[in-house]
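Teaching note: in complex prediction, the entire set of molecules is handled at once rather than each chain in isolation. The prompt given to students was simply: 'Predict the structure of this complex.' The entities are:
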Amino acid sequence: MPSCAIIVFAGTNCDMDTFRACEFMGFKTEYISANTTIAKHYDIIIIPGGFSYGDYISSGRIAKFTPAMRTLPIKNSLIVGICNGFQILCELNLLHGTLLCNNSTKFLSKFSKINFQNKLLTIPIAHHQGNYFLQPEKKNEIKKQILMTYDENENGSDEKIAGLYDKKNRIIGMMPHPERAVFKETGHTDGRIIFEFLKNEIR
Amino acid sequence: MKYKAEIIVKIKDMVKDARGEVAANAIKNCGITQNATIRTGAFYEVTVEASDIYNARNLILEITQKLLANPIIEEHKILTLAEMKNA
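The expected output is the structure of the full assembly:
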């Protein structure tokens, strides 16, 4: 059974959803506090969604200074940032680009159509700062690293990017919330496809 | 000695500023003027303790570059930096 750690910050609010989804998908899951360094090996480390440190200054800006985040990346662990986790990974420069305020300036909370591995999935999004911005000079470099795109590009992201890899394919960031689409009670179960994919990415 | 700095951080001109556009539209809609543009940013007051003003400036720059601004999308400027006489 793959091991999974979920990093919890002050202000994280998707930790329990992610924990339950991970357990359901067959990961041996535990929480770790952002205030401790990560000393043990985990197959996958998830930085869940929420509002770490109240989004003060900017989303993910303060979380990047925590001891847990400063230990990343670790060996061959797969690191996955969901929503606020994606913002934190961008702030740490572990992923290219950054996330701006949505074009509409509204908080978007809806089921979104996501293109992922030639499939069209229905996955919830819930963010205010999810408009992916990429420096123009990096556009060619990033093409192979795009993991998923919005079908309707609700927030105005460059290249419609909803999720991407780092150069070594060991770090993943995504704005959609697959953990909210695992149990049939939540309306859709396409999130399972993403968790299965993450399981296959473990080395 | 204690030093105080005033810093502004603003979104670079090449980056879309959705909040600024909404604010500029509001100016149009209320009839003040038709051609105002607005770019948004943030203002910070930071105090540090340092042996002299050069070290204070280095500390302030480090704080700004690491915490207050994201160099990919934002530019920053130290507006003032001075010793706090009464501190």
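Point out the following to students. Chain B touches chain A through eleven residues (CB under 8 Å). The two ends of chain B are 8 Å apart (CA to CA).
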